[in-house]
Amino acid sequence: MNIYIYTFGCKVNQVESEHLLGRAAENGLVVVSEASSADAVIINSCAVTERAVNKMLSLLRKIKKDRPEVFALVTGCAADLLTEKLKKSGTDIVVTNAGKKDAVEYLLEKRDFYSSIETRTVLDIGYTPMKSRTRAFVKIQDGCDSFCSYCIIPMLRGKPVSKPEEDVVNEVTRLVEEGHKEIVPVGIHIGKYGQDNGSSLALLLEKLVAIEGDFRIRLTSVELNELDDRLEELFRNDKICRHLHIPLQSGSSGILKKMNRHYTAEEYIEKVSAFKHKINGLTVGADVITGFPGETDAHFEECINTICSSGVDFLHVFQYSDREGTAASTMKDKIKGAVKKERAEKLRILGDRLKSEAADRCVGKSLRVLAQKGGMGITDNYFDVRMPDGCEPNRFYTMNITGRREDCVLYGDE
């Protein structure tokens, strides 16, 4: 049987899909690179936004319309959220998140799996071979109990659970020995790592940077209130990439309170700007949601001011969408779609400007770049680089950055 896996959403889904690819091969299935030659497909879904769900449903309908004989299994967050709707949309098998690790076996057995997310543990996904020889993702955590008023993830992924430190260290050691140069610890909320086992993200990272080898660690997203002195100090270590995603969501303290975010705009500005001042060359990314219920023009202007004052370099902009079952979905004063779209476009333009300014600050500096395939590389502070001829993939080079393209890709020489 030929199989193809579609992946929607976060990096956790990406590493879980890599795990499923390995399970498929172990079970004698042929993993194909083109969906058109597949006898069966697994759709690893996302349900964070309405748009993500709609894209997945559109894909499912197209598969069943064009090739009705193809066997379709849907797993991931949408499987927990829309079980009945998926069955009515032509899904042959639905496997909720709790059974995702065994989705290939359920496919072969042609049976569904429904179970509470609380039955799963992060240990379900251990060492996972990676297709890329450069970057490797390691799942260290799952779940979230923050219950931001707009977010459905706690209901779909369950409470936070952490993989034991020893298991993570062993996985990373093995990946480094296999030649991977960049390790990315991933989870639904990695800042909550260790709250269930007496550890912490900082403690784990201290053990990871002690592993011998020529590699670096790239963190993904850490909440503002989880940035402590110990974690900040780790960014002075050469093995930690000088880039961090610190979600903002709104730059208005009033809207942040309605979002149940537990910090103010002023606190965000103070902490992020201080963090950047301490760590030379650090770049910061942030998520921002436009059109949250009750967001006025004044709130939006506050958001722009907060972004500009904090020193954020990369913006990821989302338009608010109701997620049934969340507190925000019952709030009044919903924002019209046209207004959300207009505000999102303004923020994207601002984001382009901020990224350009950050790229300009790289020019004239020497940066350590990890070469990748296709003549490209990536700096530790998250800029793409056009590599000189002759650079070998999966090797570090010290590059003198001499300029940048309009799309913020840097270039230079050794």
UniProtKB/TrEMBL annotation:
Domain (MTTase N-terminal): residue spans on this chain: 1-112
Cofactor: [4Fe-4S] cluster
SMART domains xrefs: Elp3
Pfam (any one): UPF0004
Ranges for domain Radical SAM core: 130-357
MF term (GO), any: metal ion binding
The keyword ATP-binding belongs to this UniProt entry's keyword annotation: no
Presence of the UniProt keyword Iron-sulfur in the record: yes
Entry-linked PROSITE patterns: MTTASE_N, MTTASE_RADICAL, RADICAL_SAM
Keywords linked to the UniProt accession: 4Fe-4S, Cytoplasm, Iron, Iron-sulfur, Metal-binding, S-adenosyl-L-methionine, Transferase
Protein name, UniProt field: tRNA (N(6)-L-threonylcarbamoyladenosine(37)-C(2))-methylthiotransferase MtaB
Species whose genome carries this gene: Geovibrio thiophilus
Record lineage: Bacteria, Pseudomonadati, Deferribacterota, Deferribacteres, Deferribacterales
